């Protein structure tokens, strides 16, 4: 009488063990999938930051073949094209992202950025015009300012630059752009002020230092501003100031500045020497 009961218990035990085994297999499979997902996310991050941009392009192209509808991979490809400075190819890649149902306003801003880099200013303006005005980000307003500049809409440009500066904790770059806008308009004093603000925000930004010297030279102020600079930078800025003086017709001042640039540079300053020789021989 005990055998049928024992058999029933054994069968039940086997079923339970089988069920446990199935559940265990499912858990293992899920764990493997989770690990793979983490590994893939980490690899995507690497491809978008430290990896060679062209390697990133190849990776996202390859991965998209198996997952053509994943917007994160589409974005990765578009960003990689921009990182590789392949802007003409970046634009259609961003257009593909924009078509996705999960695309965002940020994607449109990034597409406008790629269009500007590709020289497609009118298209970039249309892209930004299609973004709701409620989408207020630093990058959006920086691009709006650049487009207003290209259209010589100075009041709009100033307004957009001002908003962009207020939306970032690192405004040096946009202040430099704003200053350059003022420089092209002939507003040299305001340009100098903005370049000075940019340098105060980021003392390593040599472009702003050089632009500041150009603004001073345009005002016939042939002394270097009181800003942080290493010896090589000082020599290069003296060279810029010398060329500015020569352009203004102040040739003798230019010669003096070129000699000072040659003496200041810790190595042989070929560009300054060549300019000085050309002046003295003429």
From TrEMBL:
<dbReference type="InterPro" id="IPR019734">
    <property type="entry name" value="TPR_rpt"/>
</dbReference>
<dbReference type="Pfam" id="PF13174">
    <property type="entry name" value="TPR_6"/>
</dbReference>
<dbReference type="Pfam" id="PF13432">
    <property type="entry name" value="TPR_16"/>
</dbReference>
<protein>
    <submittedName>
        <fullName>Tetratricopeptide repeat-containing protein</fullName>
    </submittedName>
</protein>
<dbReference type="InterPro" id="IPR011990">
    <property type="entry name" value="TPR-like_helical_dom_sf"/>
</dbReference>
């Amino acid at each position: 009488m005990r055998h049928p009961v024992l058999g029933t218990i054994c069968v039940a035990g086997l079923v339970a063990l089988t069920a446990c085994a199935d559940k265990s297999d499912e858990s293992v499979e899920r764990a493997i999938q989770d690990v793979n997902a983490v590994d893939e996310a980490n690899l995507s991050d690497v491809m978008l930051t430290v990896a060679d941009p062209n390697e990133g392009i190849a990776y996202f192209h390859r991965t998209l073949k198996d997952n053509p509808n994943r917007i994160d991979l589409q974005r990765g490809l578009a960003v990689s094209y921009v990182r590789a400075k392949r802007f003409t190819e970046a634009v259609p890649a961003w257009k593909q992202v924009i078509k996705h149902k999960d695309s965002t306003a940020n994607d449109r801003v990034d597409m406008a950025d790629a269009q500007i880099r590709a020289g497609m200013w009118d298209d970039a303006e249309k892209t930004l015009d299609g973004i709701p005005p409620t989408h207020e980000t630093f990058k959006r307003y920086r691009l709006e300012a650049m487009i207003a500049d290209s259209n010589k809409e100075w009041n709009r440009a100033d307004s957009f630059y001002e908003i962009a500066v207020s939306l970032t904790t690192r405004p040096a770059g946009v202040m430099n752009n704003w200053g350059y806008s003022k420089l092209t308009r002939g507003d040299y004093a305001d340009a100098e002020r903005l370049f000075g603000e940019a340098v105060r925000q980021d003392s390593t930004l040599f472009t702003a230092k050089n632009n500041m010297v150009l603004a001073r030279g345009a005002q016939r102020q042939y002394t270097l501003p009181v800003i942080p600079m290493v010896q090589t930078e000082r020599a290069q800025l003296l060279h810029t100031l010398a060329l500015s003086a020569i352009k203004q017709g102040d040739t003798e001042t230019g010669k003096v500045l070129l000699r000072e640039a040659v003496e200041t540079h810790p190595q042989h300053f070929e560009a300054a020497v060549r300019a000085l020789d050309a002046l003295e021989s003429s």
